[in-house]
Input
Amino acid sequence: MNALWYAMSAPERSISGEIHAQVRVRADSRWFSGHFPDLPVLPAIAQVSMVVDMVARATVTPLYLKKASRIKFKQLVAPDCELTLQAWAGAEQNQYRYRISEGLDEVSSGTLVLAHKDVREHMQHEKSATTIRIAEIVINELKLEDVSPETFDPDLDLVDEVGIDSMDLATIALVIRDEFGIRIDEDDYPKLTTLRIIAGYIDEKKNEA
Output
């Protein structure tokens, strides 16, 4: 059971190989008071992280999200929701299709590619100081839980995989502008989709100056 923001039943496997578990999203989660104070709903990255946690428990393997695709969010998740999580192994190695539902209604679904945490730990050594600082800014501005600057995947798409909107992206861009003393054109906002891309953009702007 995760004592921070949700309670999960022990994941089970069906004969067909499906992994499933029941989850109750705690009303006192900081997700609700932090990211959406006027509309307490569970953000996209939190939903996906529950699925990763379920698969990791079921396979007894420390996993992290490497890539997400074809994600669809169809219903808001409010405090104290009771959810059903399902995951099926995909055609590729470490690929899983997932579905989250509330009763008979689908909440979200998509495809995830997971990787062993040892791979991520090796990858962290390649992170620059700039990338680490950007991760700190993103985590602070979005009030992200269960992630640290050292464990934030620098290639995770902030829009498609973390689920931030254009307003969040603009806010982060303004903080980065002030932090690093660079000019960021509004037309460039849509390009700043990962920590690694943002770090490269900052280095480029500094070299221009």
